[in-house]
């Protein structure tokens, strides 16, 4: 691991600091232990996953509306194909996008910088985590080549459907590959969580007390604590399920279970045990996906409004409280699963309780921008979009948290609308805000300066995505209230009264499909923007948003224009973030790293 | 279905654009006011609907208010400084307290409804029906004259021989059990459903009864309710159960009590032969 001198001819023009790098290309980019490179690797992984996941969701949408359409190179989409699409869409988006990009991607890229560290606590473990995640993604995608196709039991993999190979196509090798993939992902996430926790505990620079940590760091830290608890339980559950499938145990399959002619003679396992273990992971997972975005929202609203986050301690507390309550609410996914009705009441109350810290967050955001006249840069637009979507998706949370209402709404399109707005859309808006905001850091290398993404393309991307998101997911509330269940491969040609009920939802479903296609097309300006701005975007000034947090510290920049020996300077923090002096006309600010007290 | 009253009106009176328009408008309005909920056909349904509609309107109201505050905050002239501690209290802690009280009230109301529906079992006089979910069908079993269900054993399962549930032929209680592919119930009598699943988890969902409960293999789960309005309603599967999940459905027929009695008698007679 010793850095070698390797003056390549092509880099002769760059400054001396370029020379202090590991030798080979693969050391520098492929198996790098540098948090910056690993962060970008994670983001690229998530980008691949989100592109595939979105394509799969479009196939689902198109199939629902035009069930007879024939897919090129594939043929018609059969019911089992549709359920495979459901499974892969959910698995890719939840694990490889919404967990990977905010927590591992931006967590690696930005978190060390924001605490004034030049590396993560365990750089090699970090590289290992990434490569295990990459193998996990490859394993998942390999399942599509299994003889009977990929798994059809959804990302929640309820047994016995997931435990018995005869329960359907894709439940043999396809299911084993799914299990292997998610088990690898759990290992990677657990290791990565340990790394994040130790980094925050141990690598903060001088002066970076707990109360001076940016709220983004609090978000990543809390999410890492949740990851550690949640993914280790998921890993255990996956191993038990694997044993049920191949080692003759029966943790999850009851005696006398008869699936497709295969009798499970003994063992007395309980499918509900899986639901408990899975949702003990699954609900914290939702907060792992959204907590970094919530932290980012506070920081960006303050940055662009030129205001302090008031009640900073309360905001730290609500972050931790959301994390803590997040591990006590898993039973609200199980109100109709056969849980003791008293337990449902208990889980209902803990879930309603989590609405309070979440409400406190939203009120704080509203108060933060109140009469602030912020500057409407694209990162701010996406942050405001996050607030709007978080509200819209969040307000249906307390409805679903009431068991008596859940006994009507559970597993209908109403639930799809709820979690896509609050987790998927708000989560993705957080990611977009992060990308636009941190693009100078993301695009800067030792030989090229960081650049900004184009503002006009950014605005186009924002409005298209916001309108598309609402047009796609709002109508789903209505079809859900009309009683339409999820996971139906087909809405036409169903006999009986069920056929009537489903046929009535078709006009709205058709609209949702058009909106989903629009939403996907609205991402084209983003990709165009990424490709164009990487080389031709405006060169970013050292602190383009007048931010106060350390990721913009000159000594942490990798650009050629930065100081000659950037890694030498000691980083010291003198104050809490967001020290904005809000004079009416000209707002001054003091970054965390600048000594002196003139704006205090 | 929603258009049928218009068709009736067109048939009975001379066509008039204004009356048709007003009918469409009033129907659209009522659909909006009721959020497109299906007809409600169970005794607990109206209380549940009232609570659901209350929740939906509160959520919509809060959504609108929050967005108005957001937009107003963005549009109004910039204040010299951020709100002071007192204003912050007004902006944050007062609404938070009010919302906490609101959520608490909704929770209490919801838990009371839940307690009535689920905390206690059915009346002993309730009609007993067993529901079994199998990939990808629902089977309904009535206990017959002896009011007792025969023992089932997966080794006896033989759908081709008319025994899809595996009723043990050596159990005398099973001799008079009645099997049905549709759930037929009398109106205004409490029903005690016992839910089973043979293979994987299924979800028993009847939108018009505002009722959903998973059927879990290895477990017997009871739910009770009283259907009120005669009619034919959809029973759907609401838990992903395999490739035929989308077509796992059955009809629920709620009959006036006398019609139910004659249906049951005919069923018993047919079984006895």
Which terms would index this structure?
heterodimer; A: 600 residues; mainly alpha; Cytochrome C Oxidase, Chain A; two-stranded antiparallel sheet; two-stranded antiparallel ribbon; 17 helices; globular; disordered N terminus; B: alpha+beta; Immunoglobulin-like; 3 domains; five-stranded mixed sheet; 10 strands; elongated
Helix/strand order of chain A, N-terminal first: EEHHEEHHHHEEHHHHHHHHHHHEE
The interface involving the most residues is between: A-B, 101 and 91 residues
Low-confidence stretches of chain B: 1-14
Helix content of chain A: 55-70%
How helix-rich are the residues of chain B, as a percent range? 25-40%
Q: How many structural domains can be distinguished in the coordinates of chain B?
A: 3
CATH class type of the largest domain in chain B? Mainly Beta
Strand order of the largest sheet of chain B: 3-2-1-5-8
Multimerization state: heterodimer
Q: How many domain regions of chain A?
A: 1
What does this structure look like?
- Helix content of chain A is 60%, strand content 3%.
- In chain A, strand 5 (257-259) and strand 6 (262-264) form a beta hairpin.
- A two-stranded antiparallel ribbon of chain A has the order 1-2. In chain A, strands 3-4 form a two-stranded antiparallel sheet.
- In chain A, helix 3 packs antiparallel against helix 4 (123-142).
- Chain A is globular and about 75 Å long.
- Mean pLDDT of chain A is 91; it is low at 1-20 and 561-565.
- Chain A has a single domain (23-590), classed as Cytochrome c oxidase-like, subunit I domain (Cytochrome C Oxidase, Chain A), CATH 1.20.210.
- Chain A is mostly helical and 600 residues long.
- Chain A has 17 helices and 8 strands.
- In chain B, a hairpin with a 4-residue loop joins strand 6 and strand 7.
- Chain B is of the alpha+beta class and 273 residues long.
- The model of chain B is unreliable at 1-14 (pLDDT under 50).
- In chain B, helix 3 (45-75) runs antiparallel to helix 4.
- Chain B has 3 domains: 4-33, no CATH class; 45-119; 127-272, Cupredoxins -  blue copper proteins (Immunoglobulin-like).
- Chain B starts with a helix and ends with a helix.
- Chain B has 5 helices and 10 strands.
- In chain B, the strands form 2 sheets. Chain B has a 5-stranded mixed β-sheet with strand order 3-2-1-5-8. In chain B, strands 4-10-9-6-7 form a 5-stranded mixed β-sheet.
- The chains are: A mainly alpha (600), B alpha+beta (273).
- At the A-B interface, helix 3, strand 5, helix 9, helix 10 and helix 12 of A face helix 3, helix 4, strand 7, strand 9 and strand 10 of B.
């Amino acid at each position: 691991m010793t850095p070698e001198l390797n003056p390549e001819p092509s880099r002769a023009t760059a400054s001396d600091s370029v020379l202090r790098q590991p030798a080979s290309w693969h050391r520098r980019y492929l198996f790098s232990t540098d948090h910056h490179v690993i962060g970008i690797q994670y983001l690229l992984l998530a980008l691949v996953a989100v592109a595939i996941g979105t394509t799969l969701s479009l196939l689902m949408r198109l199939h629902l509306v035009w069930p007879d359409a024939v897919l090129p190179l594939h043929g018609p989409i059969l019911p089992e194909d549709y359920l495979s699409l459901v499974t892969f869409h959910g698995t890719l988006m939840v694990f490889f996008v919404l967990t990977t990009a905010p927590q591992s991607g931006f967590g690696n890229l930005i978190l060390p910088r924001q605490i004034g560290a030049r590396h993560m606590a365990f750089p090699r473990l970090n590289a290992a985590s990434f490569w295990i995640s990459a193998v996990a993604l490859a394993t998942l995608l390999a399942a599509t080549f299994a003889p009977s196709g990929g798994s059809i039991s959804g990302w929640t993999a309820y047994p016995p459907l997931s435990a018995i190979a005869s329960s359907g196509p894709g439940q043999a090798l396809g299911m084993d590959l799914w299990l292997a993939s998610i088990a690898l992902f759990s290992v990677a996430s657990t290791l990565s969580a340990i790394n994040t926790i130790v980094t925050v505990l141990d690598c903060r620079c001088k002066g970076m007390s707990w109360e001076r940590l940016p709220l983004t760091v609090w978000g990543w830290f809390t999410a890492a604590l949740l990851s550690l608890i949640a993914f280790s339980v998921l890993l255990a559950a996956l191993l038990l399920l694997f044993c049920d499938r191949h080692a003759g145990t029966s943790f999850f399959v009851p005696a006398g279970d008869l699936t497709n002619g295969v009798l499970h003679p003994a063992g007395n396992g309980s499918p509900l045990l899986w639901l408990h273990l899975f949702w003990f992971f699954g609900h914290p997972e939702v907060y792992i996906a959204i907590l970094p975005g919530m932290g980012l929202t506070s920081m960006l609203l303050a940055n662009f409004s030129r205001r302090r986050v008031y009640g900073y301690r309360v905001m730290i507390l609500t972050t931790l409280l959301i994390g803590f309550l997040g591990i006590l609410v898993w039973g609200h996914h199980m109100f109709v699963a056969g849980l003791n009705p008293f337990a449902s009441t208990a889980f209902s109350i803990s879930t309603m309780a989590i609405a309070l810290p979440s409400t406190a967050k939203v009120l704080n955001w509203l108060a933060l921008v109140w009469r602030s006249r912020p500057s409407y840069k694209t990162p701010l637009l996406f942050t405001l979009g996050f607030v709007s979507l978080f509200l819209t998706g969040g307000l249906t949370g307390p409805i679903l948290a009431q068991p008596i209402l859940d006994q009507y709404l559970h597993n209908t399109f109403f639930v799809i609308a709820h979690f896509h707005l609050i987790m998927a859309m708000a989560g993705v808006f957080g990611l977009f805000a992060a990308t636009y905001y941190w693009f100078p850091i993301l695009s800067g290398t030792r030989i090229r300066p960081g650049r900004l993404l184009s503002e006009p393309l950014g605005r186009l991307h924002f409005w298209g995505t916001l309108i598309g998101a609402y047009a796609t997911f709002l109508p789903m509330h209505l079809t859900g209230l009309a009683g339409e269940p999820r996971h139906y491969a087909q809405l036409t040609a169903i006999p009986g009264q069920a056929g009537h009920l489903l046929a009535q939802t078709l006009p709205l479903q058709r609209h949702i499909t058009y909106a989903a296609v629009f939403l996907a097309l609205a991402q084209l300006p983003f990709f165009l923007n990424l490709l164009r701005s990487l080389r031709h975007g405006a060169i970013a000034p050292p602190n383009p948003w007048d931010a106060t947090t350390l990721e913009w510290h000159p000594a942490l920049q990798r650009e050629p224009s930065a100081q000659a020996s950037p890694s030498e300077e000691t980083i010291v923090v003198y104050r809490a973030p967001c020290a904005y002096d809000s004079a009416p006309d000209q707002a001054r600010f003091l970054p965390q790293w600048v000594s002196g007290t003139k704006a205090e | 279905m929603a258009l049928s009253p218009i068709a009736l009106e067109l048939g009975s009176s001379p066509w008039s654009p204004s009356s048709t328009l007003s009918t469409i408008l009033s129907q659209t309005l009522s659909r909006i006011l009721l959020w497109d909920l299906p007809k409600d056909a169970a005794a607990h349904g109206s209380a549940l609907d009232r609570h659901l509609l209350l929740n939906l309107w509160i959520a919509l109201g809060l959504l609108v208010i929050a967005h108005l505050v957001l937009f107003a905050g963005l549009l109004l002239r910039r204040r010299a400084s951020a709100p002071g501690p007192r204003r912050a209290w007004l902006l944050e802690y007062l609404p938070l307290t009010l919302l906490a009280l609101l959520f608490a009230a909704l929770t209490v109301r919801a838990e009371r409804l839940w307690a009535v529906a689920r905390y206690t079992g059915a009346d002993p006089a309730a009609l007993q029906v067993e529901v079994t979910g199998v990939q990808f069908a629902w089977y309904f079993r009535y206990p017959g004259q002896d009011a007792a269900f025969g023992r089932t054993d997966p080794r006896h399962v033989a759908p081709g021989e008319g025994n899809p549930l595996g009723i043990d032929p050596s159990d005398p209680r099973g001799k008079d059990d009645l099997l049905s592919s549709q759930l037929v119930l009398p109106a205004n009598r409490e029903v005690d459903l016992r839910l089973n699943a043979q293979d994987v988890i299924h979800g028993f969902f009847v939108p018009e009864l505002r009722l959903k409960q998973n059927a879990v293999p290895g477990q017997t789960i009871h739910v009770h309710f009283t259907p009120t309005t005669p009619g034919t309603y959809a029973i759907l599967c609401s838990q992903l159960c395999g490739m035929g999940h989308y077509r796992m459905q059955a009809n629920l027929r709620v009959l006036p009590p006398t019609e139910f009695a004659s249906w049951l008698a005919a069923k018993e007679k047919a079984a006895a032969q």
